[in-house]
Specification:
heterodimer, A: alpha+beta, four-stranded antiparallel β-sheet, 8 strands, 38% helix, B: mainly alpha, Rna Polymerase Sigma Factor, Chain: A, 69% helix
């Protein structure tokens, strides 16, 4: 099974009953599906009504504790679009935020593809747009694959790298987020590590990357290299993620 | 226990003064907007209107009162923190608050689950909290009856798929396992179950 009918996930999504990756895939799907957004808004509203049957008297002291915490909690301003989830207590939320950021990057990537289509005056550009769309579809297939596995790690120099890998598809999607800007003439280079031998997998861009033929690879790593890349790593890795 | 009973009655009396459903909902939209502007008094009122359901939902999903209390506190503070992002045209305040409440409860379940995979939450989905002596439910409310009546209108499979996911905090994969049906069936039942509920409850989203 290489594709999952993302559209059919609407009910499970509204009930918070999907995996995190399916959430990302579905959100990605929503960005291009007006009818889905409308339906989802209604299903969400409906799901929220289910809380009506769950009345319970809150424990004594909850109100005071909540009000006390509220008094020392700054509110986020309205203009900020991304959920700056509180990483205070739960790993889950940090991870969710990483995924949300990854999804946002994916959406941004889709935007670029659309822009290129509008620009498509010459066949070459149309081809490029088609490649971008195919790439986006391939990324979505990995993210919504039933056997997808997610690993995420902070990058030593800042930001985070998340890897979604599907053994079935023999593909992985890299979702970099918040990587630090490098000095001119330096790039992030990606390495696939088989046994202990690193093989270059090219330059790591700031957008999601699709990697094929990942089966048998032990890990992937990123180093900072001179522009143009190096045949072998010339510095220690800034992040390494087992596959 | 006697003390808790007194407390319960006191709260029940107070909550009984809460207006009926439609006013309640419009009130909440206005209140949440005011909270977004830093109005602490509005937050106090919002607390009165939502805390019993936020805590009740967390408790239904998590079952453990101590964890439910922690989650309820997180949720209510999060509602305060992010209220400025609420946009009345894009959904109701009820939806805003309970989306956060449910997701946080489920997040807690899933992070717990890696430690203790278990069946203890299965019973939670039945709609009853059998050991629940302290947390009595509050008065007879129109809305609650409406939701129960509409849940009863679903097919057995739709109802179980929806309630195991929502009240039990299960993923659709777990629900499929519990109900011994295939994944596509469960996904479909969740979706058409919610659609039927939507129609029964008359849920509309003004855009």
């Amino acid at each position: 099974m290489t594709t999952v009918d993302v559209h059919a996930l609407g009910g499970a999504y509204a009930l918070d009953a999907t995996s995190e990756l399916e959430r990302v895939a579905f959100q990605r799907h929503l960005s291009g599906c007006e009818a889905c957004r409308t339906e989802l808004a209604e299903l969400r509203e409906t799901a929220a009504r289910l809380a009506d049957t769950a009345w319970s008297v809150p424990p004594p002291g909850l109100r005071e504790r909540v009000l006390a915490e509220v008094r020392r909690t700054r509110q986020v301003p309205p203009a900020i679009p991304a959920e700056s989830a509180s990483s205070r207590r739960q790993v889950g939320w940090g991870r969710r935020a990483a995924l949300a950021a990854a999804a946002a990057v994916l959406v941004a990537g889709g935007g670029i593809a659309g822009y290129q289509t509008q620009q498509g005056r010459v066949a070459r550009e149309r081809d490029a747009a088609q490649v971008a769309r195919d790439r986006t579809a391939a990324i979505e297939a990995v993210l919504s694959s039933p056997d997808v596995r997610l690993r995420s790690s902070p990058v030593r120099t800042g930001g985070r790298l998340t890897v979604a890998a599907s053994a079935k598809l023999d593909q992985a999607v890299l979702l970099p987020s918040g990587l630090a800007a490098l000095a001119p003439g330096r790039i992030y280079q990606l390495w696939l590590i088989q046994g202990t031998t690193p093989t270059s997998a090219g330059v790591l861009p700031s957008a999601p990357v699709l990697l094929s033929a990942v089966r048998g690879m032990a890990a992937l790593a990123v180093t900072v290299e001179p522009a143009g890349g190096s045949p072998a790593p010339t510095s220690t890795e800034i992040v390494s993620i087992p596959l | 226990m006697g003390q808790q009973q007194d407390h319960g009655e006191q709260r029940a009396g107070h909550l009984a003064a809460v207006p009926d459903a439609p006013t309640d909902r419009q009130d909440l939209d206005g209140l949440l907007s005011a909270v977004g502007r830093g109005d602490e008094a509005a937050f106090g009122r919002l607390y009165e209107l939502t805390a019993p359901r936020v805590y009740g939902l967390a408790r239904r999903v998590l079952r453990d009162p101590a964890q439910a209390e922690e989650v309820a506190q997180e949720v209510l503070v999060e509602v305060w923190r992010t209220a400025a992002r609420f946009q009345p045209g894009r959904g109701s305040a009820v939806n805003w608050v309970f989306t956060i409440a449910h997701r946080r409860s489920v997040d807690r379940v899933r992070s717990e689950q890696s430690r203790a995979d278990g069946f203890r939450r299965v019973a939670a989905a039945s709609g009853h909290t059998p050991y629940d002596q302290v947390a009595e439910e509050v008065g007879d409310r129109l809305e609650r009856h409406q939701v129960r009546r509409c849940l009863d209108d679903l097919t057995e499979l739709q109802r179980q798929a929806v309630t195991l996911a929502y009240y039990g905090g299960h993923t659709y994969r777990e629900v499929a396992q519990l109900l011994r049906v295939g994944l596509p069936t469960v996904k479909t039942r969740m979706r058409d179950g919610l659609i039927r509920l939507r129609d029964c409850l008359g849920v509309e989203v003004s855009s």
